[in-house]
């Protein structure tokens, strides 16, 4: 695997900080850090598609979902230009 293809690795200092601050077992602290790092690697497209699926499972209709995604995007950890409802729909369905 090339360097660019590797999954994020957990930072040992961060793991130790979580263990100390919250009394977590080392394996749990490491899993938490790895999960957070993994979640931060989503592209806008990946996040929009997965969020769409999660909101559909909650029973929301697509028009509501599109508007909610458009409102949530600026609050996410990646910088994203504003997307119209049509652009969100195209990301999901191509």
Key descriptive features of the protein:
94 residues; elongated; 2 domains; mainly alpha
Short précis:
Helices cover 63% and strands 0% of the residues. The protein has helices at residues 12-22, 26-39, 44-57, 62-72, 85-93. α3 (44-57) packs across α4.
Sequence of secondary-structure elements: HHHHH
The number of strands is 0
Largest sheet: none
Radius of gyration: 17 Å
Instruction: Report the β-strand fraction as a percent range.
Output: under 5%
Q: What would you call the quaternary organization? A: single chain
Averaged pLDDT: 86
Poorly predicted residue ranges: none
- What structural class is derived from the secondary structure elements? mainly alpha
| Spatial separation of the terminal alpha carbons | 30 Å
Residue share in helices?
55-70%
What does this structure look like?
The mean pLDDT is 86. This protein has helices at 12-22, 26-39, 44-57, 62-72, 85-93. The protein has 94 residues and is mainly alpha-helical. The protein folds into two domains: 9-39, no CATH class; 44-93, no CATH class. Helix 1 (12-22) crosses helix 2 and helix 4 crosses helix 5. The radius of gyration is 17 Å and the shape is elongated. Helix content is 63%, strand content 0%. The chain contains five helices and no strands.
Question: What is the topological layout?
Answer:
Elements: H1 12-22, H2 26-39, H3 44-57, H4 62-72, H5 85-93
